Amino acid sequence: MPGTARRLGVRNINDPVENVDAGTRYLRTLLEMFDGDVNLALAAYNAGEDAVLRYGRRIPPYRETRNYVWRINAAYRRSMANP
Questions:
Q1: How far is CA 82 from CA 39, 78, 79, in A?
Q2: pLDDT at 3
Q3: Domain coordinates of the chain in residue numbers?
Q4: How does DSSP assign the chain, residue by residue?
Q5: What is the C-alpha separation between 43 and 60, in angstroms, rounded?
Q6: Which residues lie closer than 8 Å to 12 by C-beta, 6 or more apart?
Q7: Model-level pTM?
């Protein structure tokens, strides 16, 4: 992730404002890269965009990544059910 932080211009990874800003910009980049596919963007956020590309623009078969995508989707569904 240090390479991603550098690419996004992060100077201090311990600065919460800088960290959230960079994470948000990175997620937007991933959404654009994967044509708005939220699941692929989440998988790339967790495992890296190269992993998603290496597996043919599919969620890589990594347990951690699959669980991450599932957990974020579940949290989103819960938040939408209880506005």
A1: 22, 6, 5
A2: 80
A3: 2-81
A4: -HHHHHHTT-S-TT-HHHHHHHHHHHHHHHHHHTTT-HHHHHHHHHH-HHHHHHTTSS--S-HHHHHHHHHHHHHHHHHHH--
A5: 7
A6: 18
A7: 0.86
d(CA 83, CA 71): 18
Instruction: Give the amino acid at 47.
Output: A
CB-based contacts of 75, cutoff 8 Å, min separation 6: none
Per-residue pLDDT reduced to its tens digit, 22-80 = 999 999 999 999 999 999 999 999 999 999 999 999 999 999 999 999 999 999 999 99
